Amino acid sequence: MKQEIMTITANRQLAPRIFELTLKGELVDWMDKPGQFLHIRVPQADLLLRRPISINQINHTEKTCTIIYRTEGQGTLHFAKLKAGDTLDVMGPLGNGFDLSEVKENDTVYIIGGGIGIPPLYELSKQLIQKGAKPIHFLGFATKEVSYYVKEFTELAPTYLSTDDGSLGIKGNVGTLLDEHLMSVSQLPQAVFACGNNGMLKKVESLFVDKIDNVQLSLESRMACGMGACYACVCHVKDDLTQEKSVKVCDDGPIFKAGTVIF
Ligand code: FAD
Ligand code: FES
């Protein structure tokens, strides 16, 4: 993990409340695993805690990386005001990232994402394709209006979409999308990678945990230090009847094998 004052080269709006921000700096040399995140200081004196945001794309040649964020509170609203040439104090890359070591050439891999869980899945899909694997994307948004990166994902691999109101893809959530898809296929994928809200992750876990060995879930948690020191982000380990064993989402995760933690 490193820390650097990185320079913003672009900060463009993709959809209502959704922005794509590009950062340039030496820190990019350290980024390589999809699913890792950056811990970014908000340049506003009264906001002490850094904000965790997933890495969306890494470009080692240009020494740039992108993040995609949705404005929620003061921190992300401040990010939205920044322009090319401004700087951000960035720590990272943090977290374990998705483990691609067991994925083999020609393996079918389901990539499943919902809402603001989708950004890290883009770099993941690109890296899986580089390995010769065959990803299939399942992406869910609230509405067409707040969807983003649909063209980008579609250009990489087959992409199935759902929206709550049916304005893009099927009407329903990612769970509905998966249920429908699974009825139409005779073979399950070799691996499943997912990032989204807990409800979506629970559905993914219930569908695949007993059937496929390589199911990885990226959990979201409120964080403070982001590097394993403060215990703000712990969750319990499954099948630990004493409830004494815990893991830290920031440091041991954010990616966990399905069936191993309670969330
Ligand atoms: P406020 O609500 O004002 O934040 C107040 C405090 O709560 C801050 O310390 C903030 O960090 C924390 N907080 C609020 N919501 C969350 C949350 N959902 N998760 C963790 N901490 C939170 N959001 C994106 O838009 N894009 C991403 O790619 C992305 N990746 C993430 C990766 C990880 C590993 C985690 C843990 C969270 C990620 N988030 C992402 C959520 C993002 O961190 C929060 O939306 C953001 O911190 C909100 O800050 P705020 O100041 O705008 O909101
Ligand atoms: Fe401090 Fe995870 S945020 S231990």
TrEMBL record:
The keyword Metal-binding applies. Its cofactor is [2Fe-2S] cluster; FAD. GO terms for molecular function: 2 iron, 2 sulfur cluster binding; electron transfer activity; flavin adenine dinucleotide binding; metal ion binding; oxidoreductase activity. Pathway: Pyrimidine metabolism; UMP biosynthesis via de novo pathway; orotate from (S)-dihydroorotate (NAD(+) route): step 1/1. One of its GO terms (biological process) is 'de novo' UMP biosynthetic process. Keywords: 2Fe-2S, Electron transport, FAD, Flavoprotein, Iron, Iron-sulfur, Metal-binding, Pyrimidine biosynthesis, Transport. The keyword Endoplasmic reticulum does not apply. FAD binds at R51, P52, I53, S54, I68, Y69, R70, G75, T76. Residues 1-100 form the FAD-binding FR-type domain. Binds 1 [2Fe-2S] cluster per subunit. Gene3D superfamilies: Dihydroorotate dehydrogenase, electron transfer subunit, Nucleotide-binding domain of ferredoxin-NADP reductase (FNR) module, Translation factors. CDD domains: DHOD_e_trans (cd06218). [2Fe-2S] cluster binds at C225, C230, C233, C250. Responsible for channeling the electrons from the oxidation of dihydroorotate from the FMN redox center in the PyrD type B subunit to the ultimate electron acceptor NAD(+). Belongs to the PyrK family. Heterotetramer of 2 PyrK and 2 PyrD type B subunits. This is Dihydroorotate dehydrogenase B (NAD(+)), electron transfer subunit.
